[in-house]
Design brief:
Blueprint (H helix, E strand, L loop, with lengths): L7 H24 L6 H47 L9 H12 L14 H30 L3 H14 L3 E4 L7 H13 L6 H14 L1 H4 L13 H13 L6 H11 L3 E4 L6 E3 L1 H4 L5 E10 L2 E9 L2 H8 L19
Parallel strand pairs: 2-4
Antiparallel strand pairs: 1-5, 2-3, 4-5
Helix pairs in contact: 1-2, 2-4, 5-12, 6-7, 7-9, 7-10
Organism: Coemansia reversa (strain ATCC 12441 / NRRL 1564)
GO biological process, one term: protein deubiquitination
Protein name: Cysteine proteinase
Amino acid sequence: MATPQETFEDLEARHRKEKKDLIATITSLKKSIPKGDKRKKKEVAAEIAELERTHSERHRAELSVIGGCSKAFTSSTPDTADNQDHDQSGMPDAKSEGGSATASVLGLYTNPSQPVKPVAKKNKARQRLQRRAEQLKRQQEEAEAEAEGMVDTAAVETEAISKLAASDGLSIQEIRPDGHCLYAAFGDQVNTYHGYTVSYSQMRKRAAEYMRANYGDFISFMTREDGDLFSESDFEKYCSDIETTATWGGQQEITALSHSFQLPVHIYQSNMPVLRIGEDAYSANNPIRLSYHRHAYGLGEHYNSLRKDPAAVKQYTHAGLDASETPVKHCSSLQQK
């Protein structure tokens, strides 16, 4: 809050800096919204509105404090002036004239019986604050209107995948989007349907170990960013990253896990046939079933687990949708995540 020792110029400078900080905070909050997340947009919009409200109220209150201090100063000035600025003849000396000039600059009346006029700069500051608040409010309303008109691609994609999965009696089991989603989803499948108890970190280690042991099956398909094939050191670093970091996994890692567990893998995607990996070698075994989402989160692709759910077909049938109308075909490739 403003203090009696803080001048109006100091207060105005501080307010300008705080407004810049507020704009930076609002910009950061808007950038934190995941693509297509309407609920997060509404939460952020509410948070921004509250920040703007408290910011505006505090500035008004501080301006009022400065105004109150100015009034107190003015009311005490005449008595002091009477004692110090008049000589024995009762005429004001040069110092008194200087004091009057100072009071005039401050925009104050030298006559204590008249009310104190507010400093002109304070009115302008309030007007600037009000205009800025109105501008922020308009921007907020425009952003909300724009968000309402946007197509929620994540919701459309999830609906299409859910419909395709329902044709096989499956529903989506959400996996946390933390960079380990492929391994956590695969682990959910082997733990639920194949009698294992493994963590995502164990899944990462198993994929890396299989790839090292079968170096020749993978190295010829792996390239650096410049297009050159992996060297042995590149390959070893890649496997080390699988084990020790949150690097995303893709088709190479899925292939390694499929062979390591000797299980086929079925991957469901939006507007795409089901991708089948390891089907020829392990078709007699129950498959691992995963869903692959390109638009679920703003940071990139995502994997979920698909669990058996006979009610899934009924859900789409009751909604007037034909869950079996999407063909289930073989597909040979999947974009690297």
